[in-house]
Amino acid sequence: MTARSQTYWTGDVAELLRVREGFVLSSTDPGSTPGYGSDKQQAAADLAAGVAELDLLQEKLFAQSRVGATDASVLLVLQGMDSSGKGGIVRHVVGSVDPQGVSLASFGAPTEEERAHDFLWRIQRKLPPAGRIGVFDRSHYEDVLIGRVRELADPDEIERRYEAINEFERQVAASGTRIIKIMLHISYAEQKARLMERLDRPEKHWKFTPSDVDERTRWPHYMAAYQTVFERTSTEHAPWYVVPANRKWYARLAIQHLLLEALENIDPQWPSAGYDVALERERLAAT
């Protein structure tokens, strides 16, 4: 636990949320707040305090990359059932930093061009360059979640993809990218309430699609698919974190913490000037 700006954590967030051997998704309470010792009001203050720290760390990382002083970047992978809060993380957590240092990609159904390549082809093209925070709003994991639940690929192909993902992420991590994989875990009842709110409020109708209701009928199958994903692809170089997300304030604070921790571990520094500062000050003063 290293985030300096958040003060009410009572445990190591990364350790509490990290998927390790023996993890069982059904044993995780979506309404819990692991490791946080205060309430929604204090969490809002902690989240606000974290904004300045996150922004500063991201700017330092971006500045280093501009002069070729680092190959480091961060990739935040967001997965979860419909209405689990992925958009809120993008707006309220990642959206607090300078947008020039962020690259956002959202992966829906593959295009005809993308289907002509291996499933990881389109993912490779959207990886964050050095100095950026990359965000995947859904990701390559759709190909082993939806692909399995809807039977869009043969079982043998789904099996191949797990190891392909592991090797892909191993290479990405070795290139200098810190990978943070998040599953936003909401309950079946909470999803129903959030989807109903979208129908009750005209300004949220655009967020609702009838297929959301169809997908709810497959809920147990998705939970089983996620469990397999965790067992097969939570690794040392790219661990999974399951974040209870019934309380949006907790999910946002926890993910901000994980981002802060990753950036603090990178420890970016302001790059030194590649010119004579005193000389340039004299030249500027003479104009």
Helix and strand topology:
Layout: H1 13-17, H2 40-66, E1 73-80, H3 86-92, E2 102-106, H4 112-115, H5 121-124, E3 133-137, H6 142-149, H7 155-174, E4 177-185, H8 188-200, H9 211-216, H10 219-233, E5 240-244, H11 248-266, H12 277-285
Parallel strand pairs: 1-3, 1-4, 2-3, 4-5
Helix pairs in contact: 2-11, 6-7, 6-10
Strand arrangement across the biggest beta sheet: 2-3-1-4-5
Q: Report, as a whole number of angstroms, the end-to-end distance.
A: 50 Å
Structural category is: alpha/beta
Query: How do the helices and strands follow one another from N- to C-terminus?
Result: HHEHEHHEHHEHHHEHH
Largest sheet: 5 strands, parallel
The first-level CATH class is given as Alpha Beta
Q: So, the CATH homologous superfamily?
A: P-loop containing nucleotide triphosphate hydrolases
Characteristics:
five-stranded parallel beta sheet; 287 residues; Rossmann fold; globular; single chain; alpha/beta; 11% strand
Describe what is shown at a glance:
The chain has a single domain, classed as P-loop containing nucleotide triphosphate hydrolases (Rossmann fold).
Give an overview of the whole structure.
The chain has a single domain, classed as 3-Layer(aba) Sandwich (Rossmann fold), CATH 3.40.50.300. Helix content is 48%, strand content 11%. It has 12 helices and 5 strands. The longest helix is centred in the first third of the chain and has 27 residues, at 40-66. The mean pLDDT is 95.
